[in-house]
Specification:
There is one protein chain. Helices cover 9% and strands 44% of the residues. By secondary structure, it is mainly β. The protein has one domain (2-91). Strands 1, 2, 3, 4 and 5 form a five-stranded antiparallel β-sheet that branches. The protein is elongated and about 55 Å long.
Length: 101
């Protein structure tokens, strides 16, 4: 099984929450989403492996004076904000199930 990093190929944004307020005034956030092309799985022994979606999380930092994510606004505004961030998404599942047809 392989995993691959994707750059904001969000299928569904699950949530965004504050993780930490540091001593420099930075706010650290964690975003969780269902992302495209997270796992490469085989559907049968004869077929090539296919990319499948999976749940991922990633962090980002907002420095003092920068715009914070619109947590209380319309979901589409929050999704647009997250899509504008450079987030390194990591799979939340260490061992995804293998899908066999």
């Amino acid at each position: 099984m392989q995993t691959k990093a994707t750059m904001n190929n969000i299928i569904e944004l699950i949530g965004v929450e504050v993780d930490l307020l540091d001593q420099h005034g930075n706010t650290h956030y964690i975003a969780t989403a269902i992302m495209e092309d997270v796992y490469k799985v085989r559907t049968s022994l004869l077929d090539p492996a296919e990319w499948r979606p999976g749940q991922c999380s990633g962090g980002f930092v907002v420095e003092p004076g920068e715009e914070h994510p619109p947590l209380k606004n319309d979901h589409s505004e929050l999704l647009a904000y997250i899509n504008g961030q450079e987030i390194e998404w990591k799979s939340d599942d260490d061992d995804p199930p293998v899908i066999w047809k």
